[in-house]
Amino acid sequence: MNDTNVSSIVLDRLTEEWDALTPEAQKAARYVLENPTDVGVSTVREIAEAAKVKPNTFVRMARQVGFEGYEDFRAPFREAIRQGNVSFPDRARWLQNIGKSGELGGLYADMIGAAIRNIEETFAGIDAAALKAAAEDIWNCRQIFTLGVGVNNSNARNFTYLASTGMKQFHAIPRPGSTPVDDLAWADEQDVLIAITCHPYRTEVIDAIKLARQQGLTVIGLSDSPASPVILNAQHGFVVAADTPQFFPSSVSTIALLETLLSFVIAVSSDEIVERVERFHQRRHQLGLYAEEPE
């Protein structure tokens, strides 16, 4: 157990034995699964304090999944640190190893490498001031329409869903049974359109952007080229890297950028947004929509 997958083998064992763990041991296991890099550098007392359980709980958890104790459990994580496998700067060697790991290893490495590059290229070309300006226009407008079709339809709806936990004026378009231009019929200079499409560019998105500009909307465009008609017709244009070995353009950087944009909207908003989000989730707890964690 001295390769890249050292600690992942232990994490897999935790998930496989999850149902057999006591509620307290599950709290310890959850902390390990969510913070694996902490294991190799923490004493049993330190990690127990972070997980809000007793040190003996980690010892029992380790024994329940087949180790002699916490030190034996921690050993693979420490070995991973010594081997440098938890450091992302070493990912070139990591990807090379994956590429040699079997029939689909090359594809796996290609997909991972593309996702990492897309994130890096996207955010390298965007500065915080541009995101802040777009976020302020969103916060100060009357309503926001988020437009995506095809593979970007789910991206637009995910962004709208997240935003709607704290803000009321977000609408994902096209609505069922409608068209983007119809959904924008009564929008004007008080409103914002966030439009997403990558090559080959969808005509209904381009048409909606042009109509939105005619009606005075502020347009925020996400696309894969500075020469995209989406970027050229937007007041706020953001280029997302979407290269991938698969047929469809990658959504990784699009989702990451939308999540970042939403975080900027919350950052420039009033304290009321935080209160709304808290009330939204409190309501869900009261309605029993969330599984309660063991105390």
From TrEMBL:
Q: Which domain of life is it from?
A: Bacteria
* GO molecular function annotation: carbohydrate derivative binding; DNA binding; DNA-binding transcription factor activity
Give one Pfam family, short name only.
HTH_6
Note the SUPFAM superfamilies from the entry.
Answer: Homeodomain-like, SIS domain
Q: Which UniProt keywords apply?
A: DNA-binding, Transcription, Transcription regulation
Residue ranges constituting the SIS domain according to the UniProt record = 134-271
Q: Where is the HTH rpiR-type domain?
A: 8-84
One of its GO biological process terms is:
carbohydrate derivative metabolic process
UniProt key word Transcription: yes
Q: Give the matching PANTHER family.
A: GLUCOKINASE, RPIR-FAMILY TRANSCRIPTIONAL REGULATOR
Protein name per its UniProtKB record = Putative HTH-type transcriptional regulator YbbH
